[in-house]
Every structure is written in structure tokens, then in C-alpha cells.
Specification:
The chain is mainly alpha-helical and 308 residues long. Helix content is 71%, strand content 3%. The protein contains eleven helices and four strands; from the N terminus they run E-E-H-H-E-E-H-H-H-H-H-H-H-H-H.
Length: 308
């Protein structure tokens, strides 16, 4: 946390000022996401690779019966089975989602507490106790659906309320508002805008790739239809590759996320305008609560699922 010189001692509040529990959970979420995505990528590549031997125009035999080229397919499909078994045991995807939800929940609660957002507004008696109780209640709900509390595995969990959080909470309303708008709301707006651009580029890339692969498969199918070529194997490889690209695009959900992130960014823009102009200190706790609801992963996921 950094103090900015000025009459009211404006503050900069970053992720580094959040409790250790957030950082630990966030690190697990990032690692689990990387593992889940890489596993899916490897499975799709292996499935396409398994179709390649049938499309090769030459053969290599060993002992008159053993087809060396087909070993590629055997190894590829075996790899798919192994990675599927390992993924089932490790449950990286579910751990990614659970830990991401936990990390964002912790982050949201910390921000609400630090800037007097509901339910930790100025009039709340014993706000630290209320914060600890609300946080534990939310984390216990996640434990019921499979989240593993890292505090159960290590004695070094750190405090739930950092010195920076206490310091920000003790600041005047104008300082808390300025810090929240700059370091939370605008930061989130920037993130959603950046993710829109990433999703647009990815959508264009994968849509173009699928179209090219499908067009090539159509071309070879037409050539076989008119007896220009006899082998149909290459068409199968192209179809498998197009299907893999389509599956990857669906898994990453680039297209629905463009609309979802755009809607969230627009809602945050409206909240920013209100906070910087007409919002009073009395309305502040509810406005912070609403902003945190907007940026929650559950809200974004709901929007993405309902986009056409």
C-alpha cells in the first residue's frame, strides 16, 4: 500500500494489500486453470494426431504384420486415455473454478470491509467480527461443494484483516471513495475491456481456422465424389482438426464472453459516473455492494450463459 501526499492522504490499495489467504487461493486457481487448459489442449491434439496414420500414403511394416506408422495412432489414443484418467483423478477444472470463486469472494469481502461497503458500513457495530463471520460463512459454503480450505493444510494462514485494510477503513469517506473508484472499479473496467479484445481476436482466429479446415475437407470430398481422387482419409483428418478447433473454441467460450464482458464494463461505467458525481455517503455502502456483485465471477458466468 502506498500513501499519496495530499490534504487527505489518498491511498493506493492493491492486491498485495489483501490477506495471505487470498494470495494462496489465487495461486492455486491459476495453477489449476493452467493444468486444466493444458490437459484439454493435449487431448484434442492427440485425437487429431490419431487420425493421421490413416491418411499417410505410405506404409512401413515390421515382420510382415506390424505396421510401424500405425504406432502413432496407438500412442496418441493411449495418451488420450491416460490424460483423461489423470484429469479425472486430479479434478483440475473443478479446483480451478472453486478456488477462483473463493479468491474473488475473499477479495470482494476485503474491499467491502475496507471502504465501508455493505454489510460493513460505518454504523455496523464490531465490523471486524462481522467481517470474519461473513467471510467464514461464505467459505464454508464453498467447502460444501468441494473447495479445500488451505488453512486446514497449513498453520501459516495469516490474518484475515491486513494493516492496509484497517488503515483504508479508517480514512475519510472521500479518500475511501477515491481509492475504491481508482483501484477497484476502474481497474476492473480496464480488465473487462482488455478481455473483450482478447476474446475478439481469439474468436476471429478460431472461426477462420475452422472455416479453412472445413473448406478443405469439402474440397477433398468433392474431388472424391467426382472420382478425381480415391482416398477419403485426408478428409477425415481435416474434419477431426476442425472438430477439435470447434471444441476448443466452445471450451474457451470466447464469443459469449465478449457480450458478457461488454455488459459488465457498461454497468461499471454507469457505477463510476454515479460514484464520482451524485452518490452520497449514505448511498455508498449499497453502491459498493452492487459494484462487487457486478464484478463477481458468478454474475459474469450467468451473463455468458444467457448470451445468444
Amino acid at each position: 500500500m502506498t500513501a499519496i501526499p495530499g490534504p487527505l492522504q489518498s491511498m493506493v490499495f492493491r492486491n498485495a494489500d489483501l490477506p495471505e489467504l487470498f494470495h494462496h487461493t489465487d495461486a492455486i486457481a491459476v495453477a489449476s486453470q493452467r493444468e486444466a487448459v493444458n490437459t484439454t489442449r493435449v487431448q484434442l491434439i492427440l485425437l487429431v494426431l490419431g487420425t493421421v496414420p490413416a491418411a499417410l500414403p505410405w506404409r512401413a511394416e515390421l515382420g510382415g504384420t506390424f505396421q510401424l506408422v500405425d504406432v502413432i495412432g496407438v500412442l496418441a489414443y493411449t495418451g488420450v486415455l491416460i490424460t483423461t484418467y489423470v484429469a479425472t483423478r486430479r479434478r483440475a477444472k473443478s479446483q480451478w473454478q472453486l478456488n477462483r470463486s473463493a479468491a474473488e469472494f475473499i477479495k470482494s469481502m476485503c474491499w467491502r470491509y475496507s471502504v465501508h461497503g455493505a454489510p460493513f458500513d460505518t454504523s455496523t457495530p464490531h465490523p471486524e467480527a462481522v467481517f470474519a463471520n461473513r467471510l467464514e460463512e461464505g467459505l464454508q459454503e464453498l467447502c460444501k461443494v468441494g473447495w479445500t480450505d488451505p488453512r486446514d493444510l497449513t498453520a501459516d494462514s495469516g490474518g484475515l484483516i491486513t494493516d492496509s485494510m484497517r488503515e483504508l477503513r479508517n480514512k475519510a469517506f472521500t479518500v475511501r471513495k477515491e481509492t475504491y473508484v481508482r483501484d477497484r472499479l476502474i481497474e476492473q473496467r480496464t480488465w473487462y475491456r482488455r478481455r473483450q479484445e482478447v476474446s475478439r481476436r481469439a474468436t476471429l482466429l478460431w472461426s477462420s481456422t475452422i472455416a479453412v479446415l472445413t473448406a478443405l475437407a469439402l474440397l477433398f470430398a468433392l474431388l472424391r465424389t467426382f472420382s478425381v481422387m480415391q482416398s477419403f482419409a485426408l478428409t477425415g483428418v481435416l474434419s477431426a482438426a476442425a472438430a477439435a478447433c470447434l471444441a476448443w473454441a466452445e471450451i474457451r467460450r470466447h464469443h459469449p464472453l465478449i457480450s458478457a464482458h461488454s455488459l459488465v464494463e457498461q454497468d461499471l461505467e454507469s457505477m463510476q459516473v454515479a460514484m464520482e458525481t451524485t452518490l452520497t455517503e449514505r448511498q455508498w455502502p449499497r453502491a459498493v455492494f452492487e459494484t462487487e456483485r457486478i464484478v463477481s465471477p458468478q454474475h459474469t458466468d450467468w451473463l455468458a450463459r444467457h448470451q445468444m
